[in-house]
């Protein structure tokens, strides 16, 4: 159990590699998508869960300067990284919070937003019930979740490369963020938590990365897959990285990568 937790933990040097290697590619385009939708709702009080390194938080603060924004994450290392980058945002309060047990009162927020965090909830129904509880009547719940690995080829490539180096004991991390895309399941769990007027939209974007090397750094050293590699055979990391870089170059080129990405953006009413 301890090792399993370690292999999905975003700690140590992971946050900086995550943001620098994957931020512009995976999270920036969807942060803009999410922020525009949330800003159109004009919430006065907004809770962001699983804020990560704060890319969505930044846009929310800029587009909703009058809103009181509470940005939370369960992981102290990720939250500290976000705070260090965006400490000057005037309308944002930062806090450690567990999505399954939010430290806030009932009916406190006009909107709850989660960008690529719900996939990691160990109990999604419980997490949704908590978001429902802290929302005001008529409030909006909005989140993004990745579609399958096959729909996000660069992540599938990373998964395949690492698995080929550890065929007898392949890592399972990439199966987690790309496992929650069944629309019927999502709707059923949201309805079970009390939500209605549920809308699920397929949203495809192009992510950007400066180089194949930087993309490989992000996906291998900016995710908990690095914990798996270091635990099993850290001496294999250079070879794994080089193989992954080679695969990226074949598909996307070596510099100024444009990477197709596919996710769902889900909205529901309290």
In short:
The protein has 10 helices and 7 strands.
Explain this structure.
The protein has 270 residues and is of the alpha/beta class. It has a single domain, classed as Rossmann fold, CATH 3.40.50.150. It has ten helices and seven strands. A seven-stranded mixed sheet has the order 3-2-1-4-5-7-6. β1 (45-49), α3 and β2 (68-73) form a beta-alpha-beta unit. The radius of gyration is 18 Å and the shape is globular. The two termini are 35 Å apart. The relative contact order is 0.18. Mean pLDDT is 94; it is low at 1-8.
Structural class: alpha/beta
Compute the number of strand runs.
7
Largest sheet: 7 strands, mixed
CATH superfamily: Vaccinia Virus protein VP39
CATH architectural type? 3-Layer(aba) Sandwich
Question: Tally the helices: what do you get?
Answer: 10
- Amount of helix: 40-55%
Strand content: 15-25%
Average predicted confidence as pLDDT? 94
Number of domains: 1
- Give the CA-CA distance, first to last residue: 35 Å
Report the C-alpha radius of gyration, rounded: 18 Å
Q: The CATH topology is what? A: Rossmann fold
Question: What is the strand arrangement across the widest sheet?
Answer: 3-2-1-4-5-7-6
**H-E string:** HHEHEHEEHEHHEHHHE
Q: Uncertain spans, ≥5 residues at pLDDT below 50?
A: 1-8
Highest CATH level, the class: Alpha Beta
């Amino acid at each position: 159990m301890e090792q399993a937790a370690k292999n999905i933990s975003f700690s140590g040097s992971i946050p900086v590699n995550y943001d620098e290697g994957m931020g512009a590619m995976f999270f920036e385009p969807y942060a803009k998508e999410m922020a525009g939708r949330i800003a159109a709702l004009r919430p006065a009080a907004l809770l962001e869960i699983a804020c990560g390194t704060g890319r969505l938080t930044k846009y929310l603060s800029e587009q909703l300067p009058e809103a009181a924004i509470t940005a939370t994450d369960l992981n102290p290392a990720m939250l500290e990284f976000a705070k260090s980058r965006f400490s000057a945002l005037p309308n944002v309060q930062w806090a450690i919070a567990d999505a399954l047990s939010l430290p806030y009162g009932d009916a406190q927020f006009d909107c709850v937003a989660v960008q690529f965090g719900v996939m990691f909830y160990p109990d999604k129904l419980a997490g949704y019930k908590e978001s429902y509880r802290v929302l005001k009547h008529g409030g909006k719940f909005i989140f993004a979740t990745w579609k399958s690995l096959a729909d996000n080829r660069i992540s599938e490539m990373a998964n395949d490369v690492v698995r080929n180096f550890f065929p007898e004991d392949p890592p399972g991390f990439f199966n987690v963020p790309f496992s929650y895309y069944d629309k019927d399941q999502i709707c059923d769990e949201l309805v079970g938590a009390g939500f209605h007027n549920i809308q699920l939209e397929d949203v495809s974007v192009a992510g950007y990365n400066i180089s194949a090397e930087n993309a490989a750094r992000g996906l291998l050293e900016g995710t908990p897959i690095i914990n798996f590699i270091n635990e099993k055979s850290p001496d294999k990391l250079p070879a794994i990285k080089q193989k992954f870089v080679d695969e990226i170059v074949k598909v996307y080129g070596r510099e100024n990568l444009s990477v197709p990405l596919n996710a769902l953006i889900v909205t529901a009413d309290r």
